[in-house]
Please model this.
Amino acid sequence: MHQNLKRIRVPAILSLTLLASVGAVSPRNTLAGPAAPIEGASPVVILPEPSPHWVYLIDHSSSLVVTNITVVDGDAGKVVGTISSSFLPNFVITPDAHTIYVSETYWSRGTRGVRSDMITAYSPRTLVPSTEVELPSGRLLANGKKYGLSLSADGHYLFSANMRPGTSVSVIDLKNSTWVTEIETPGCFLAYPTGVASFASVCGNGALMNVSISATGEVRKAVTRPFFNPERDPVFDAPAMVSGDDHFYFVSYHGQVWPVTRVDGRAEPGPSWNILTEEERRSGWRPGGFYQLLAVHAKHKRLFVLMHQGGEWTHKQYGTQVWVVNTETGRVVRRDSLVAPASSIAVTLDDDALLFAINESTLSVYRIVGDSLRHVRDVKNVGASFMSVLGEG
Model:
């Protein structure tokens, strides 16, 4: 539909001070066919259809050159399989669990030489790559930026964040396996999907930039009013999002929850509320987690927040409790302690939901019963920066 889009260049007037997606590659699009079988290699195991209780973990800490995406069955407490990827990859899973898209970076001589950036499609049944699309603008190289890569609402487009150091988003047409364009997002970062051909980026002044692409290829941008104060109370940049739901949620360093409505391809911040009582605030309770401290179960109207006790600027301290918030009333309905402090959490989206919490190399699995958490098992020797379950986004 948008193959006639032209590459868009808007001069950047502001950039965020985060890791840059430096490095140019040849400005052409490529499509590689299925990976050729290797003579003498072990046969590829065909996995069952992905389960809602499978969790996909990416571990950026074990090795920066080769990073694993590990698939764990939360019911069996076992590793199902592993994708061996590249330097600081990112990934998304289609809502129908048909494809895993991974943004990857390789050098021709391992750690040096010619750099190649690409989107690679992997099969969830075999964990084997099938196609590649080259990213001529490179991609963001940063540890633990979950929404550095995201899918449009209908799965037609993939949005990949860049920073060199000016911020932008590359648009990939997945139906035609082509890179389409690069859209400058000066002063705004990451890509939160908002519609069929639209996304929002969070801005350094506390606003959101809404970006949409029309059927004729026209790019439209509009910036909302600032909804949080980045100097006094910043928000974490990994909101809780569920594919197909009209709302997603940010939380601030001091416990302010900001719901955002997705309407007509735009993200509109709404009235906020705070999850902390005065006594809890005096006791030092606050949200925290190194990578991913929020999860939402849209059907059950529950937001899960990783919490800890600490002083100012302890937002990366591991959480010791999970607070469960009713998203309709804004009230905290449950506070449960974890068996071990966690850097990230994720919640499955089925009725018999599980909560996953990662601590270094141990994944703890909890069953959600009513609003309470019941620890059921630990899975050892699986590390993670952030996690994904089916239906997020």
User: Anything to note?
Assistant: The chain has one domain: 54-388. Residues 1-38 have pLDDT under 50 and may be disordered. The longest strand covers residues 332-342. DSSP finds one helix and 29 strands in the chain.
